[in-house]
TrEMBL record:
It comes from the Bacteria. Residues 429-461 are annotated as: Disordered. Residues 234-429 form the HD-GYP domain. This is HD-GYP domain-containing protein.
């Protein structure tokens, strides 16, 4: 919402009107104002504690993780379980309007956040009261109290999903068909956990021990959120480091712009097909993305040379895995990815570089990245040749399996593509001619971009 389209502003205004309608009956209700004030202060305090935000930071629960503790929902859901719907909706407003916001327009983001959460809390409280959840909370009637609370949590998630999808479609111009995809599933589990904590708060609040006991529920949840925040700060720093390195490579070697991200994607597909755990899959994605980072140490004139490379120039370019390994040696979170960066041009028959490793001497991550690298190089259009179809590229990989590539990795890629397909972004530097026909590929140059070579040492056209 940096420059917010007019229709997005209209959408926000409509949600704000809906939120005002939710809290409008509040002056006519007999509610415990001290409880409303205490919950509002608690939520406002949580909102001032910063958590990491995703790239866009639009939604409060869904595709992007909010930066503040707006996702710290036990207080809001406890209000939905304890208070009438208008009062529960009002608890949101002070904290959301006082929240830390880094991106502009700040006032519009605060208003949007307050409105969407107020509507969602109002709907959740309405459902909870309609199912007699208040009586179950007062009487601590378990397990019956779980049913209305669960319905309230589902309602809360559903409302947020609908509102978030709308703002993504209008403000971020996301495709309408995909704007809501996955939002509900991603938000349900964390909101359910916070909903259970909110229910515990509400039950203790109504118990003889009173609000003080209820506040104790917040302590373990706060510690958990703090640890989660630390993890995401660290992860954000990792992503920023990798993004900066990849952008530097893309700027220097325009021929392969986007290549690194696609190799990371293909490496991740192979890793999942091999049954690697999520942590190793993530590190292998880093390996694929950074496999060519050593090109930063290669003279630009060689990377952009259109004609054949001389033997001396080829030897210089073949140093890029070692350059890359030196560059990332001190980045601890890369782990096994560093060996892949160093050895992704090794071949099973020992004719690769930089060390001529044979067979199982080549690290597993390097064997994965080698296949992903070659596959993307063959299926991407360059200024000097057109892309091969995916089936032709896979056929070439299978032909070279056992000599250049690990057969297990090749088959894993074949299975992954059969299941998921291959839909990379188009990054060709030369536009097609009219009618969508690419110009014929010129004679093969001496550039080194990861394409598989035949067993005779010749370059694949």
């Amino acid at each position: 919402m940096g420059s917010v389209p007019a229709w997005a502003r209209v959408y926000v205004a409509c949600v704000v009107l809906g939120a005002l309608a939710c809290v409008a009956p509040l002056p006519d209700l007999r509610v415990p104002w001290w409880a409303v004030a205490l919950l509002a202060v608690l939520y406002a305090g949580c909102e001032r504690i910063t958590l990491p935000r995703g790239p866009r930071g639009v939604s409060a629960a869904g595709r992007d993780t909010p930066k503040s503790m707006g996702t710290f929902l036990p207080v809001l859901l406890a209000g939905a379980f304890l208070l009438p719907p208008p009062a529960a909706a009002f608890v949101v407003v002070p904290g959301a309007l006082l929240a830390r916001v880094e991106q502009r327009p700040r006032w519009l983001r605060r208003v949007w956040r307050a409105a969407q959460l107020a509507v969602a809390v109002w709907a959740a409280s309405r459902v909870h009261w309609a199912l007699d959840g208040r009586d179950a909370v007062v009487e601590a009637d378990f397990p019956y109290a779980l049913a209305p609370a669960g319905a309230a949590v589902l309602t809360f998630c559903l409302v947020l999903t609908v509102l978030d999808g709308g703002i993504l479609a209008l403000a971020d111009r996301a495709p309408v068909r995909g704007a809501w995809r996955g939002l509900f599933a991603r938000s349900l589990a964390p909101v359910a956990v916070h909903g259970l904590a909110g229910l515990m708060m509400a039950v203790l609040w109504r118990s003889p021990y009173g609000p003080v006991a209820a506040l104790l529920v917040l302590l373990p949840m706060y510690v958990s959120c703090w640890a989660f925040a630390q993890y995401h700060r660290e992860r954000a720093a990792h992503q920023a480091t990798i993004r900066a390195l990849v952008q530097a490579v893309d700027i220097k070697d325009g021929y392969t712009r986007g290549h690194s991200e696609r190799v990371g994607q293909a490496s991740m597909m192979i890793a999942r097909e091999l049954g690697m755990d999520d942590e190793r899959v993530e590190v292998l994605r880093f390996a694929g993305i950074l496999h060519d980072v050593g090109k930063l140490g290669v003279p630009t004139r060689l990377l952009r040379k259109d004609g054949p490379l001389t033997p001396e120039e080829r030897r210089v370019i073949e140093l890029h895995p070692e350059y890359g390994h030196e560059m990332v040696r001190g980045i601890g979170f890369l782990g096994e990815a560093r060996s892949a960066i160093l050895h992704h041009h090794e071949r099973l028959d020992g004719s690769g570089y930089p060390y001529g490793l044979v067979g199982a001497q080549i690290p597993e991550f390097a064997r994965v990245v080698a296949v992903a690298d070659a596959f993307d190089a063959m299926t991407s259009t360059r200024s000097y040749r057109r892309a091969r179809p995916v089936p032709a590229a896979l056929e070439e990989l299978e032909r070279c399996a056992g000599v250049q590539f690990d057969p297990g990795m090749v088959q894993a890629l074949v299975r992954a593509l059969a299941r998921h397909g291959w839909h990379p972004a188009v990054t060709a530097d030369s536009a097609p001619l009219r009618g969508g026909v690419y110009p014929p590929a010129p004679a093969v140059s001496g550039r080194l971009e990861g394409q598989p070579t035949t067993t005779a040492g010749g370059r694949v056209p």
